[in-house]
């Protein structure tokens, strides 16, 4: 598609759509708990629909009533063997988290996905889940999907040091641990998003945490709950950056999730001199209304424990850095290579084509700001966040247009993205 370019200021208010990580988990916890779960603010995107349809295939009733989703859970024991393979589409979160649930069921199931998901390594979950007693076969050494997963109702508790900083791997082990007799212990490489831990507690379960150490004793029964899902800071990130870099912009973002394991981008914006104000905070649902204004920015370094707190925002942060004075260095982010695409390589290629001075590193990127962006033709390669980053970058192109292949991937996490952009252009 041909993208809008050379836009004037962006103004107005956006209500950010539901958090993707929390939405997957709300459905999962609803399905494995006993009783009714009522969810307000669920993200209705393709990725979350993949999780919903997988549980429907396992016999769980999930349906909409007015503005809520209802899940009639019957506990782990109420899940039924699916009669066909489970298709996770583009969603790594669905595949990895569900693998942890299925590890504890006495069935053999095939988990498959689209072309992008079929290139993503599943050895990171296969290794610990096999140590617990499941059998998982994938393609090649790195266990690429489709996966053939044979679960067991007699899993063994393990003690495991995560070799990668990954909330998906942590969550898969915790879901298996909830079904395992005895204490499963984990140590994270770096603290990652903690939505699974939060929801175990919310659904009446028990989990202990001390810094990077987490332990869970099973088997546990969970109870259905009512919950309201805050907006996704990873979706808000596109408007935060757009507001900072399109001259004259001022945008209000309502319903931004501010769980501290996710707010790394706000720390980076502050370090770069960007103007973001908190207009109000709702402590119960951990969300806030933020106001962002066009700002003069300077380069910064992004590394270490900050990385897992903004991992999904790095493509749009790379664009932000291209509009800052001086150099921004992103390090310790090798994990970016294992997302919907190899994001180090795809972000570098696209921004280079647009005229940005950017260099890839094995574990990051170096970006020197200040070059004007120019028209070109690029392919987002089935990666929603790369596609959205390109749409925002194109807004700054003064002459000609950017032609983007693969913009349809945006529906995996933000189906209303283009409508929201239009709203900001016309306010
Ligand atoms: C997610 C965890 C992150 C993130 C992904 C969603 C989750 O992946 O990139 O978009 O919901 O647990 P990793 O845990 O693999 O880093």
From TrEMBL:
Residues annotated to bind 3-phosphoshikimate: 20-21, 25, 166, 168, 312, 339
GO cellular component terms given for this protein: cytoplasm
Keywords for the protein's UniProt record, in alphabetical order: Amino-acid biosynthesis, Aromatic amino acid biosynthesis, Cytoplasm, Transferase
List of residues binding phosphoenolpyruvate: 20, 92, 120, 168, 343, 385
GO terms of biological process kind: amino acid biosynthetic process; aromatic amino acid family biosynthetic process; chorismate biosynthetic process
Residue ranges of every copy of the Enolpyruvate transferase domain listed in the record: 7-421
Any one GO MF annotation of this record: 3-phosphoshikimate 1-carboxyvinyltransferase activity
Residues at the active site: 312 (proton acceptor)
Catalytic activity from the UniProt record: 3-phosphoshikimate + phosphoenolpyruvate = 5-O-(1-carboxyvinyl)-3-phosphoshikimate + phosphate
Enzyme class: transferase
Compartment(s) where it occurs, according to its Swiss-Prot or TrEMBL record: Cytoplasm
Main location per the UniProt record: cytoplasm
Listed Pfam families: EPSP_synthase (PF00275)
Recorded superkingdom: Bacteria
E.C. numbers: 2.5.1.19
InterPro entries, per database record: Enolpyruvate_Tfrase_dom (IPR001986), Enolpyruvate_Tfrase_sf (IPR036968), EPSP_synthase (IPR006264), EPSP_synthase_CS (IPR023193), RNA3'P_cycl/enolpyr_Trfase_a/b (IPR013792)
UniProt cross-references to NCBIfam families, sorted A to Z: aroA (TIGR01356)
Subunit structure, as described in the record: Monomer.
Function noted in UniProt: Catalyzes the transfer of the enolpyruvyl moiety of phosphoenolpyruvate (PEP) to the 5-hydroxyl of shikimate-3-phosphate (S3P) to produce enolpyruvyl shikimate-3-phosphate and inorganic phosphate.
Family: Belongs to the EPSP synthase family.
Protein name: 3-phosphoshikimate 1-carboxyvinyltransferase
